[in-house]
Amino acid sequence: MGIKYRDKNEIMAQILESANGNRIRLTKIMYDVYLSHAMTRDYLVLLIKKGLIEYLDGERTFKTTEKGMNFLRIHNSLQELRPLTTIAKSREGRISFL
Question: Where are the alpha helices (DSSP H) in 1-98?
Fold first, then answer.
């Protein structure tokens, strides 16, 4: 099986899922999401700026915020629709009106 391409939203969702309801350290997120230290930090900075995850300085851990949980719910709902759009696109090529 080949490596699956992940877009920015997919990676952000995976990070939020990793820190979902937990106080989790950066290294655990790295291993859960298969990202380098630098990339994990970059995404965490972005997620903090957007208010989707919070850094608990005293514990040096991260936790998904309520806004982050809403992002996850919407992202997961869209993922459920993805197979439908893939099927529609594959049929599009076969349908001819001429």
Answer: 8-18, 26-33, 37-49, 66-92
> Which helix (H) or strand (E) element contains residue 56?
strand 53-56
pTM: 0.78
Nearest to 9, CA basis, from 85, 77, 55? 77
pLDDT in tens, the chain (98 residues): 455 678 899 999 999 999 987 899 999 999 999 999 999 999 999 999 999 999 999 899 999 999 999 999 999 998 888 766 555 555 555 555 54
Please give the Cα distance from 63 to 85 (Å, whole number): 33
CATH architecture of the region 8-91: Orthogonal Bundle (1.10)
User: Which sequence spans correspond to the domains of the chain?
Assistant: 8-91
Residues in Cβ contact with 96 at an 8 Å cutoff, skipping those fewer than 6 apart: none
